[in-house]
Design goal:
- With 370 residues, the protein is mainly alpha-helical.
- The chain has four domains: 35 residues, no CATH class; 62 residues, Helicase, Ruva Protein, domain 3 (Orthogonal Bundle); 115 residues, Zinc Finger, Delta Prime, domain 3, CATH 1.20.272.10; 104 residues, GMP Synthetase, Chain A, domain 3 (2-Layer Sandwich).
- Helices cover 61% and strands 4% of the residues.
- It is built from 19 helices and three strands.
- β1 and β2 form a beta hairpin.
- It is flat and about 95 Å long.
- The protein starts with a helix and ends in a 10-residue tail after the last helix.
Length: 370
Amino acid sequence: MLTGSAFNALLKTLEEPPAHAVFILATTEAHKLPATILSRCMRFDFHLVSVDEISRLICKVYDEEGKKYDMDAIRYIATAAEGSVRDALSIADMCMSLSEDKLTYDQVLNALGGVDRSKIRNLFSAISASDCGKCFEVINDLAISGKSMGLIAKELTYYARDLLLLKTSPKLLTETEEHIAMMREDVQSSTEFLTTMITLFSSIDAELRYSISPRIVLETACLRACKLAVSDISALEERVARLERSVAQGVRMGNEERRETQPSNVNMSAQMAWGKVISYFRANESSRLQTIVGNHTDVEVKNGDFIIWCGDDFLDFNDQGMIEALKRAFAINNIGYKIKIDKRVERDRDKELEMLKSMVGKDVKINVIK
């Protein structure tokens, strides 16, 4: 970019340009150009070209040259160009000269030094399964074949991003249907885990570039990712859900076995029953549910219903997870009441006073005893 004085000199030239001259200003930081310069220019914004458009262009060039090709090879070239038509044509020309007959995906992969998507998928699967040994094996195979550790990290980041797109916005994917079908097998990973993977492997780029042992840096990053996979929220939720289903199933089976010998208790007071429920939650449920139940005291037994009167916590008690947990607590403690969750409607005293004054007259003095 030019200095302020240089821009002023350029402005003078633009105001009185030579008849034979055409000025072309190219920059990636148009916002830094002074308004006086921009107002005297015709502006053309260039954007990255999509993978589909680049693929069609390469196919057209190869068709005109009589070159046979696989579509997987064409899409890999288009993806490697990263939106640049010039780079795409350069890569296509290089691959065409290296291939005597039909251009295949493996030939393009070898020409660009890329990493086979199946190897990246194996590495991601090993990380998701927290299989550290498998991670070392895959990285070792890639290192023996001469693949760059930085490229492996980059491809792993792209793969995690593609999985994230598949979960959130599939229409943005540029992969083939075959690759998308393979990716669906790994799409069970949570959004949080995929986001963390992207952040982790994109952040080691500089470290890989300047490290004396890039392989160790990549292996360490994979081990950290394996640890994250173990503590992944979705994995923990699934384990908790399985335990809850097992407990619920055991409770139902136990209830069926002792239904005749141990009838449900419908004579227990509301406070005693609620105390047993709180004790169960403290021993078996999550801290969030413990807090909600432990801070609540407004309960009542009426006509065979155990009524939980709620205020601001009405939505918390109507959560499906909370309802299932309450059912388990009632079943284990043999509480025979039917659970009912209701909300108390607080009286609007000001509105009632206004209504009363309108009936008896505003001059009447009303004493409110709270």
